[in-house]
Write a structure and sequence with these properties.
Layout lengths: L7 E3 L2 E3 L6 E5 L6 E6 L3 H20 L2 H17 L1 H12 L3 H19 L1 H4 L4 E6 L2 E9 L2 E5 L7 H12 L3 E5 L6 H12 L7 E3 L4 H9 L3 E7 L2 H13 L3 E5 L4 E5 L5 H13 L9 E7 L1 H16 L19 H17 L2 E4 L17 E4 L6 H4 L6 E7 L2 H10 L2 E2 L1 E5 L3 H10 L4 E4 L15 E2 L2 E2 L6 H7 L1 E9 L16
Parallel strand pairs: 7-8, 7-10, 8-9, 10-11, 12-13, 12-18, 13-16, 15-16, 18-19
Antiparallel strand pairs: 1-2, 3-4, 5-6, 6-22, 11-21, 14-15, 17-20
Helix pairs in contact: 2-4, 2-7, 3-4, 3-7, 4-6, 8-9, 10-11
Length: 498
């Protein structure tokens, strides 16, 4: 059987690549190559950007209400095809189908938010700022924008970026991860089916060559990115140097602080989903549990270990599976290497995912791992592992836990579990982090709030979706209006209003 070759998407249809370079797309559950994705060359890049640029003026001039209606129909089509999209996500990423459905739903919530764009695009108006003079502001689209998205959320993160961008009147070049690229193309097809003009939403497959072209091409006005911190920094610096707006989300090392008064049953269940859901391949996964007091840790760790050992790891399409494989063999081996490092560093490996029976199967499977007695000096604490590995750090006081969170170079998400409202409020106020959960393990904001971290987890002035997304994908224009009854004499001084 011939392995299929995927296509770019431009001018409203699938577009064959000129490039001879390709990358394999795996089925993580079997380890087999399911398809090949083209890695765009200069001709592909030019064709896709040119199509987006050609479509931009007309799409930007359509009324906000008209654009919103297209997005509404798109949402309905995505819901109608939700099972298909979830299976597509799962087959290339490896997350279980139920998790893929949840990802799609969280993405579509931003589409729902963007349907309200006629209200969100409203400017301000001041009547009579001076004698006979009114002033108003309005938001205008930027033109062509680029969305560069990661492998771990092939539907949700693209929807977070492209929904507000499209609703605000921009055309989009979406560069999905080459590891799981098919969902992006299917979303673009459904957008055209919803009534969008050709060229408004385009998909360009590729690697660094495509990314760097999007960062430097003068027709691209803004870049939205999610990925690792080193690449996020490169994206931010390169695109900003070329005069573009940039929002670049980087890495994370999300902590959950467990105070002695916390409900440990709730903590265990929350940690299981937050640390091992999607095999830990989430930028908002909890990878560090900071437990206050040895007595609390001694009670928590055995209960966690029992649940980690009982994790139902299997085929993503199996409804009983709680965790599927990792996305590629290379990534699985990288995560396994971090477990090796943790053992060498002296952390206590309570549950060894390397020894799970599932690892003998075909596919990129790895069991859940649990470390205890991890310290802040260890590499497994400092670095983002991005896999099913949870590190337990023991501290003596709540202040020490807070200091640990604040000292880490990442500041994406953090959680605290406690029954003490005062302690939770003080922690939320003092912690140096962009998103905080109180008895909520994965505090991903709803669509009408904005998503973003602090420190080395984010580069740029605006977060994603919410009103920050509207601000990022529009430019503000302020108009001062006067209708004089006669001719004024020339004035050579700075005008003042009376």
């Amino acid at each position: 059987m011939t392995t299929p070759l995927l296509s770019h998407f431009a001018a409203g249809s699938r577009l064959a690549s000129h490039s001879t370079r390709t990358a394999p797309v795996f089925n993580p559950a079997t380890g087999a190559v399911a398809a090949h994705v083209p890695l765009a060359d200069a001709a592909d890049i030019e064709r896709v950007i040119a199509d987006a640029a050609a479509a931009a003026p007309a799409w930007g001039e359509r009324s906000a209400l008209d654009r919103a209606r297209v997005l509404f129909r798109w949402r309905e089509l995505c819901l109608a095809h939700a099972d298909e999209l979830a299976r597509l996500i799962s087959s290339e990423h490896g997350k279980v189908v139920a998790d893929a459905r949840g990802e799609l739903q969280r993405g579509l919530e931003v589409v729902e938010f963007a349907v309200g764009i006629p209200h969100l695009m409203k400017g301000e108006f001041s009547d009579g700022v001076a004698t006979g003079i009114d002033m108003h502001s309005l938001r205008r689209p930027l033109g062509v924008v680029a969305a560069i998205t990661p492998f771990n959320f092939p539907a949700m993160v693209p929807l977070w970026m492209i929904a507000p961008a499209l609703a605000c009147g921009n055309t989009v070049v979406l560069k999905p991860s080459e590891r799981d690229p098919s969902t992006a193309v299917r979303l673009a097809e459904l957008f055209v089916e919803a009534g969008a003009p050709a060229g408004v939403l385009n998909v360009l497959h590729g690697d660094a060559e495509a990314v760097n072209a999007l960062l430097t091409d003068p027709r691209i006005e803004a870049v939205s990115f999610v990925g690792s911190t080193p690449i996020a920094r490169h994206v931010y610096e390169t695109a900003a140097k070329h005069g573009k707006r940039v929002q670049a989300m980087g890495g994370a090392k999300n902590h959950m602080v467990v105070l002695p008064d916390a409900d440990l049953d709730q903590v265990v269940e929350s940690l299981m989903g937050a640390a091992y859901g999607s095999a830990g391949e989430r930028c908002m996964a909890i990878s560090v549990a900071v437990v206050v007091g040895d007595a609390t840790a001694d009670a928590l760790v055995p209960r966690l270990a029992e649940r980690v050992r009982a994790l139902k790891i299997g085929e993503p399409a199996d409804a009983s599976s709680e965790m599927g494989p990792l996305v590629t063999a290379a990534h699985r081996d990288r995560v396994r290497g971090f477990i090796d490092v943790g053992v060498r560093e002296g952390a206590t490996l309570v549950v060894d995912g390397r020894a799970h029976t599932i690892t003998t199967r075909d596919g990129f499977f790895l069991g859940g791992s649990l470390f205890d007695h991890v310290t802040s000096a260890m590499e497994i604490y400092r670095e983002e592992i991005f896999g099913p590995v949870l590190c337990v750090v023991r501290v003596a006081t709540a202040d020490e836990a807070l200091a640990l969170c604040n000292a880490h170079r990442y500041g994406n998400g953090v959680a605290i579990f406690t029954r003490n409202g005062g302690a939770a409020r003080a922690f939320a106020h003092r912690v140096q982090c962009g998103m905080v959960g109180i008895n909520v393990p994965i505090p991903v904001p709803m669509a009408f709030y904005s998503f973003g971290g602090w420190k080395e987890s984010a580069f740029g002035d605006h977060n994603q979706h919410g009103m920050d997304g509207v601000r990022f994908f529009t430019k503000l224009k302020t108009v001062t209006t006067r209708w004089p009854a006669g001719t004024d004499a020339a004035s050579f001084s700075m005008p003042t209003l009376k």
